[in-house]
Design brief:
By secondary structure, the protein is mostly helical. The protein has one domain. The chain is built from four helices and no strands. Helix 2 packs antiparallel against helix 3, helix 2 runs parallel beside helix 4 and helix 3 runs antiparallel to helix 4.
């Protein structure tokens, strides 16, 4: 038997379940970073082209800052999860901390997306009013 198969046979059911759970959480953060990065790129790319004189620029600033902080928090937790998977143990301090960070990252992501939606709706609505 290889060392890898011997090592796997020593994992308890709980350790294996924890490892799979950590991998799934890692994927969540990976998707958050991808969505946030894509949103930032789209906003920066299309902002000038869609709105000549935008109203509510503070919403765009809020969105960009929120999405950036979401990316930063997600990377931080991804690093913690990678070390947990590597070491096969969870430190309660890290679990509490990454729970707080993911909650913050999700709230920041939602704040960023809602800010962009509000900005777009306000400017599209006002644009339609001006054209009447």
């Amino acid at each position: 038997m290889s060392q890898t198969s011997d090592e796997k046979s020593t994992y308890s059911v709980r350790q294996t379940a924890n490892q799979e759970g950590w991998k799934l959480q890692y994927d969540i953060y990976k998707h958050l970073t991808t969505l946030s990065t894509g949103s930032i790129i789209l906003v920066v790319t299309f902002l000038e082209k869609l709105f000549k004189n935008p109203v509510g620029k503070g919403l765009v600033i809020t969105a960009l800052c929120s999405l950036f902080l979401c990316i930063f928090g997600s990377f931080f937790v991804m690093n913690i999860l990678a070390s947990q998977i590597r070491e096969m143990e969870a430190d309660e301090r890290y679990e509490k901390r990454h729970g707080l960070i993911i909650g913050s990252a999700l709230i920041l992501f939602l704040l960023g997306i809602v800010s962009l939606i509000l900005f777009a709706v306000i400017n599209l609505y006002l644009g339609n009013l001006k054209s009447l």
